[in-house]
Amino acid sequence: MTIDLKTVKQISKLARISLEEEKAEKLADDMNSIFEFIEKLNELKTENVEPLTSIAETTLRFREDKITSDNIREKILKNSPEKNDDFFVVPKVVE
Amino acid sequence: MTDITSLSLFELIKNIKEKKISSNEAAKSFVDRSEKSKKLNAYVTENFENCLKLSKEFDNKPNFDLKLPGIPIAVKDLFCTNDVRTTAGSNILNNFVPSYESTVTQNIWNEGGILLGKLNCDEFAMGSSNETSFFGNVQNPIAKDLVPGGSSGGSSSALAASLTPVTIGTDTGGSIRQPASFTGTVGLKPTYGSCSRYGIVAFASSLDQAGPMSKDVKDSSILLEVISSFDKKDSTSIDFKRNNYSSELTRNIKGIKIGIPKEYRVDGMPDEIEKLWKKGIEYAKDCGAEIIDISLPHTSYALPTYYIVAPAEASSNLARYDGVKYGLRSSGESLIDMYEKTRSEGFGEEVKRRIMIGTYVLSSGYYDAYYLKAQKVRQLIKQDFDQAYNKVDAILTPSTPSSAFKIGEKSNDPVSMYLNDIFTVPVNLAGLPGISIPAGTDKNNYPLGLQIIGKPFDEQTVLNIAYSMEEKINYKNNITNWWME
Predict the structure, then answer these.
(1) Residues B73, B110 contacting (CB under 8 angstroms)
(2) Considering only residues 373 to 432 of chain B, which have any Cβ-Cβ distance to chain A shorter than 8 Å?
């Protein structure tokens, strides 16, 4: 299987990473060599194997749904690249 | 007076408790040496002034009952530190100042440790040579232009150069053990679930674990005792009885069964690694261990499995970097355009490559063929270890298939870089504890490490074997201070 330029561009859209044309080609080459290496897994028959989803072997704990922190709005907004009063600001999304 | 920076953590604690050295004297020594070692590029963010101030405060009101009384410690820049910039080696977090503290670092401060600074690492811990860091390459103190390993490369470099008495790293596929091996130091990855992941910048959540890095085994046992804790803030933290690792440390390992997996004898492995391994087996026998040949038949599938599981989890974890709530933002004509430009400019090449692989293997139509398949093979790899542990208490292997390489030597070939982690990755996939200890040198006099892998939650046996073998090996790093101005 090979990953072509079109596929690379489509994945970059899904990953929300803009990609320049010349970098896309290099990326396609890299991805192909990595997938060639990954294909080795097809040597194994795994129809009857249970997938391992968590190594911890415990079911996730429940906790009470209650607020444990104080009013930390300022702390949360502190690192925002653009804010307006108590809001994060993003580029306009409605026409 | 001996040089304070050359002391082990154990000796430093002893001297401080006996009031032969003050916390401030210790802080000054490490700050001073760090200031003279800028060429190593081990630090991303220095906390020197604050460290000196806090050490004075400790001396004014000392508490010698603490496990790390007034000890200055630099940590990998993947741990969030309250009010101190945390970058994860990435441009996208270049200006990020957390308003909370990771549990592991909080455990250190609670026991009297003082933050010396934040250490360089591969971007989001993705790399084996520290060359993917936005903040530049790190020099290995062993020799000029040699990589310190990765991703905890700043940590291994600072430790080997005595800029910090001990340090902590994180290990997703070998990121503590491989840099320890490359710098002649000790690095321990604990069992998954031992050390809280809360406040650690996430890479691959089912694999990430924090652990100690130190100059000798005893120091790792002291630090592990401090950082290992059950934490409600980490949903996969495990509540088990933790040992007093340092006081229970013993060289009595008579009758312990150590397995030697034949599959770790990989094609093209240099003779000197083979020889080192054989020497290690002899040392283990000398310590009273019983050596047993074992098989881990799915070993060669570990790396391909890892390079599906880790990028898949990374692509999901790194989706949060969107230029809105924190981190870098690039300007764009629309919201989507802003996201795409921010992520393109904020992430480096290796991180983008892994996000792309992860996005692909999780995308509709490919999930079963790649991600599900990898999870199934991961099960087989874990079962290999489960079966081996019916016969043995621990497993001995080389830490890496080679010694440290030159900066730039492998950076253009991702697959050859990935092969570096061939002996360490299976341990993460199975969630086991593993330690790398220095065991010899190659023809260039570069350090080589041996890895001891244990049963889940049996860090004590791993440490005891390492402690016993360390005494027989009697390795000494040859650091010439070549980088000093």
Answers:
(1) no
(2) 373-380, 382, 414-415, 418, 430-431
Which CATH code is given to the segment(s) B4-252?
Answer: 3.90.1300.10
Q: Pick the catalytic residue: B157, B175, B214, B315?
A: B175
Residue A58 has pLDDT above 70, yes or no: no
Nearest CA in chain B to A79: B326
| Residues lower than pLDDT 50 in chain B | none
Least confident of A15-19, A74-78, B153-157, B437-441: A74-78
Query: Is the whole-model pTM more than 0.80?
Result: yes
CA distance B372 to chain A (A): 7
Residue A53's pLDDT is: 87
Cα–Cα distance, B154 to B455 (Å, whole number): 29
**ipTM score here?**
0.95
Q: What is the pLDDT of residues B50-64, one digit of tens each?
A: 999 999 999 999 999
> Domain map of chain B by residue range?
4-252
In this model, does residue A57 exceed pLDDT 90?
Answer: no
Smallest Cα distance from B12 to chain A, Å: 36
Alpha-carbon distance A90 to nearest alpha carbon in chain B (angstroms):
7
User: From the candidates B23, B34, B76, B196, which is the catalytic residue?
Assistant: B76
Let me know the angle formed at the C-alpha of B429 by B103 and B257, rounded to the nearest 5 degrees.
100
Nearest CA in chain B to A59: B236
Q: In the block, which residue shows the tokens 């933050």?
A: B115
pLDDT tens-digit readout, B87-139: 999 999 999 999 999 999 999 999 999 999 999 999 999 999 999 999 999 99
Active-site residue flag, B151: yes
DSSP character string of B133-175:
-TT-----TTSTTB---SSSHHHHHHHHTTSSS-EEEEESSST
A24 touches chain B (CB under 8 A): no
What are the residue boundaries of the structural domains of chain A, listed by start?
5-43
Inspect the interface and report whether the beta carbons of A37 and B353 lie closer than 8 Å. no
DSSP letter string, B351-391 = HHHHHHHHHHHHSTTTHIIIIIHHHHHHHHHHHHHHHHTTT
Q: Is B254 a catalytic residue?
A: no
